[in-house]
Structure formats: structure tokens, C-alpha cells
Amino acid sequence: MNFFEHQQQARRASMRLVLLFLVAVAGVVLAVNLVGALSYAWTLATPAGARAPAGFHLAVTLVTLALIGAGTWWETSRLAAGGEAVAQMVGARQLDPSTRDLLERRLLNVVEEMALASGTPVPRVYVMDHEAGINAFAAGHGINDAVIAVTRGTLTRLSRDELQGVVAHEFSHIFNGDMRLNLRLIGVLFGLMMIAMAGRFMMEVGQGGRDSKAATGIAVVGLALWLVGYVGVFFGRLIKAAVSRQREYLADSSAVQFTRNPDGIGGALRKIGGLTGAGTLGTEIRHPHAETLSHLFLGAARPSFVAGLFATHPPIEERVRRIYGRSIGSLPAPEQPVALALAGSIAAGELPPIDYPAGAAAMAAASPLAALAAAATPPQPQAVGRAAPQAAGYARSLTEQLRALELEPAVHDAALAQLLVLALVIEKGSAVADSQRQAIAEALGAPAAAEVDRLHTAVAQLPPGARLPLLDLAGPALRKLSAAHGDRLLMLAHALVHADGRMTLAEFLLYTVLRRRVGSDSRRAVPVRYARVQDLAPAAGRVLSLLAHVRLPDSPERAFAAGTQALSAPSPALTPRHELTLEAIAADFERLNQLAPLAKPAVIRAAVAVAFVDGQTSWKAASCVRSLCAALDAPLPPQVADA
């Protein structure tokens, strides 16, 4: 399966979740009605066999549905912030992107490398400081608000390769649509537990009542509801286990594909096996919310007394056997001294130095990044949502060049990241440069305007195709901004772009990605409104027309024809260049993002066919394809040749 098929599978799993939820609700409603009828007969001492008055069961049913619905709505609303809200539920601490802690720096390096190699925004990274076991999770509504959280034991007990395997496992959950499904599951499970919580509340009220008979009656009814409420808990755990297990197998296999190293995730699982035993669990999470979030984790967060249907994760031994193709023993997992844990990272020279090296311009010119970009090969739709192992060199070269150009602090610091965005946006000549600087100075102050000038000079030394990945690297720092500050940054960037009354293609592509990464809409789930490309054929035609005019300005018809052949829809007509507006293209991008997952590959195939017509492309056409994929929430890894 590819990225889009996994996304579609997650949508189907969401539909099954709704059906299972309805079955569970029906079971809870029947059980509560039974308790209600028995309680009515007992408390009012009615003759045996007497029926409750008309409307009694309807009232009980409505109250029960209201409790379940209110609980589901409450928990879902509480998680509206996405991955950040989930991380806060377990008391995780967000890592500062500029941290100098060596273990934390290694983790951030691995996450950034994986993100660059897969073309996805860099997730925010959290650490559960008080958890000594090996565990991790990914959470969020989508790739733009994703977070990855790991335990302290994951940092101290795993080698770099094993840590990379765990991170790749979590990236699989990000790519395959598991995060949104898991967030919905949390809300559903909380709703099903509301009856048990109401029963517990009644028991507490009954125990504190003065009227012994009435208090006893309330307590008994509360006890009955508490017991019946566990019908919901039963169904909830059954649903959670059914949804979670197969997704873990998929994430394990994806981690091996991403890293091309079975000893990465395999070694981590074997160390988990080495920690498990003698009444302990190598992946145990001690936080009170561990049970609620157990289906999100890499391994079981709590011991399970009932295996099989109720186990949220497959046995570690079976997961290891599937990775290696045979049974293989566990590994010891002691907490390693920092120097030993970082041995691989130090040998690779990946940890950032305290001071930046001299000769930044010479180092930038010698960087292999430009050569890698020149060796670009046509991206294929099946590459979407996959980390390209051959792109690891690209990721490290970009990181080294940022360090040489003294751009790395701007990538990792929230205040400087805003100025970096403005430096990327400024692409005008001297005629409008003064008005742009004045706008920045008025909004942020004269020192900020001077820093934007410095950053712009450094950014100008990067190859054009490296600027969009730079936005992905700055993602965690930019997402520290509140929604209001993010919108303010977008407004200022928009004003700078239109300082001369027009928007160039390069500015449009940059602003499109920036809006999808930072705008308030990026924190919301995108609804699916269109099942087929045919439903949006005019929008697809305009996007392909733009690409055709960019790729072959003198003969766009030939490039456009290559795209329409790959488009599984009635062939639209080429839109003349003078009829294309970037505002209309931006609206088309938003509509195309509302396509069903399995309909998006046709659009990407067609865009690639246009951009790489005759087997060649330009950086502008390739950037158009990357921006389209960003707008479709379809992460596209850099396509570099193996070398």
C-alpha cells in the first residue's frame, strides 16, 4: 500500500469506529434502562411486575445519550488543539529547538532529518521526563500540527539507529492518517465512560447524605450504574484494541522501509523485551492518563491482564519475528552514559558546534546541496509519504549549510524564525526594498528590519529549491506562535509580497506553503468533500495550466497534454496565461485538498508529468509540484539520485 491507500484505510477505520461506537451506545442504553427499571421498582416499593410509567424509558434513554454525547463532545473539544493537547495530558515537556542538551539535540537531529527526507513539516518534539521505560507516540490532526513525544528512557537506553527506528515508526503514524483516528477514539472512549463516572458521583453523594434510606438508595443505584458503566468500558477497550493492533504492525514495517535498517526499530523492540519481565513492563507509562492514551503509544502503556481481543498492541516477540523473519532474543537496555549514547552521533559529526565555523561563504559554495538538487529525478506518487533514505545526504547537507551561513539559530528560535520568513518573502529589487524595510520597521522595529536584511543576504546564497525545505525546518519554532501572532505574520508577509502591487510565482509558492504550515487553518482537520477528480476537473485544469506555462512558456500545449494524459478525468482545456490569476490558483489548491485520499494521486501524477515533460524540469516547475503537494497535505520527499 502507498500513502494514499493508508490514508483511505484510516478513513474506513474511522467509519468502522462510528459503527462500533453506535453498537456500544446501544448496549449501554439497554443496560442503563434495565438498571433504571429495577431501581424504580425497588425505591418506590411497587408490586412485583409493575411497569414504570409511560415515558420513563424514553427519559432514561435521552439522559443516557445526553451524557455519552456530552462526554464525547467535551473530550473532543479539549483535544481541538491536536498533538499539543495530547502531549500536555501526559505532562510532556516540549523541547526547545535550540537546546544544547546533547541527548535532546540528538533526538531533534533525527526528527529533522526524517522530516526533510520525507518532505513533511518538522513535528514539535516532547519528552516525558519522568518515564524510565522505552515508549513514544505521535499525535495531531494532520502533518501540520503533529507532535512526537518520547520517554526519557527512549533517550538514554537506545542507540542513534534505534532512536531513528522509533522516530520512523511514529512518522508512519503521521503519514498514514492514524493520528486523527486516534484523537477521535479518545473522544469516543471518554463518552462511553460517562455512565460509570455518573455512577461513581452518585455513590459519593449517597455516602455523604443525611437521610440514610434515601442515601442508601442513591448509593445503590450509583453502584449499579457504575457497574453497568463498565459495559461502555468493555466496548471501549474492545474498540481500542481492534483499531490499534494492525496499525502497529504497519508502522513497524514502514519504519524498516524508511530507514532500510531492521536493526533500528527491531533493536528498540528487542530492548523493550529485555526490560520486560519480573512484574515490569518495558514500555510502561505511569502517568494517570496512560490508559486513556494507551492506543497511541509505541508499546503497551499498562500491563494487560487479558490478552487477545483486549490487547492494544501485538506481543513484542511477534513484532520482532515479523521484522526479522524469525524469532530472535531480547537485548539488555541499561541507561547509557551520555558519551556512550552519543557515540554514533559524535562519530557522524552531526551534533552542532557551540561556535559557527569561519568561512561561511566558501563553505556554502562547496556544499553538495546544489549538486544534489541538480541530480533531481522525477518524483512518483508512490514516493509521497515515504522517507527517502537516499535523501539523508540532502538533509545533512542542508543542515551543514545553514550552520555555515549562521542561519541555524533563525530556524530554531521562534522570534528569529518570524524574521527568517520575512527574509524569504523579500525578493524585490531596489525599487521596493525601502518600502519593505519601512513596513518591517513599523511593525517590528528597526533592529528587526536590520536582522531581516542580514538573513536575506544569507538566504540568497541558498539554491532556490532549498527555500521551501527551510520553512519545514522552521516549523516547530513558528508553531510556538499563538494563532493571533501567526495570522499577524501572514498579514505582514502578504503586505511585503504586494509591496509593488503584484505577486511573483516564487512569492506565491512560498506564501502558499507558509499559509498551510502556519495559518490558523493548518491546525484544523480538512474535510473530504469530493470523491473524484472529475468533480474538480476545472480546478485541476487551471493548476496544470499554470505548471505548463512555467515549464514550457513557448509551447505550454505540449506540457499540458502530457499532464491531461495522466489525469483520470475528462481532459480540461489549457487556460491561457493572461486568464490565470494566483488568487484563483490558491482557491483551487484549497478545493483540491478536499479530495478523497485515493483521488489525489491522479492530480500529483498529472502535475509531475507536466513539470518533468521531456524528462527534464526547472526549479520553478519542481517547486510548483512541491507546493501543490504541501497544499494537498501530501508530503513529497526530495527526489535526489542515489550517489
How much helix, percentage-wise, in residues? 55-70%
State the strand order across the main sheet. 1-2-4-3
Strand tally is: 4
Alpha-carbon Rg, integer: 28 Å
Determine the structural class based on helices, strands and strand pairing: mainly alpha
Question: Any overview of this molecule?
Answer:
By secondary structure, the protein is mainly α. It has helices at 3-43, 56-78, 83-89, 102-118, 152-157, 160-175, 178-192, 194-207, 212-259, 262-275, 316-324, 338-341, 343-348, 360-366, 369-374, 392-404, 408-412, 414-425, 430-444, 446-459, 467-473, 475-478, 483-497, 505-518, 537-551, 556-566, 582-592, 600-611, 619-631; strands spanning 93-94, 124-128, 136-139, 147-151. It has a four-stranded mixed sheet with strand order 1-2-4-3. It is globular, with a radius of gyration of 28 Å. The two termini are 27 Å apart. The model is unreliable at 351-376 (pLDDT under 50).
What's the helix and strand layout?
Elements (H helix, E strand, L loop, with lengths): L2 H41 L12 H23 L4 H7 L3 E2 L7 H17 L5 E5 L7 E4 L7 E5 H6 L2 H16 L2 H15 L1 H14 L4 H48 L2 H14 L40 H9 L13 H4 L1 H6 L11 H7 L2 H6 L17 H13 L3 H5 L1 H12 L4 H15 L1 H14 L7 H7 L1 H4 L4 H15 L7 H14 L18 H15 L4 H11 L15 H11 L7 H12 L7 H13 L12
Parallel strand pairs: 2-4
Antiparallel strand pairs: 1-2, 3-4
Helix pairs in contact: 1-2, 1-7, 1-9, 2-7, 4-6, 4-16, 6-9, 6-10, 7-9, 8-9, 9-10, 10-11, 18-20, 18-23, 19-20, 21-24, 23-24, 24-29, 25-26, 25-27, 25-28, 25-29, 26-28, 28-29
Structure described in brief:
With about 650 residues, the chain is mainly α. The chain contains 29 helices and 4 strands.
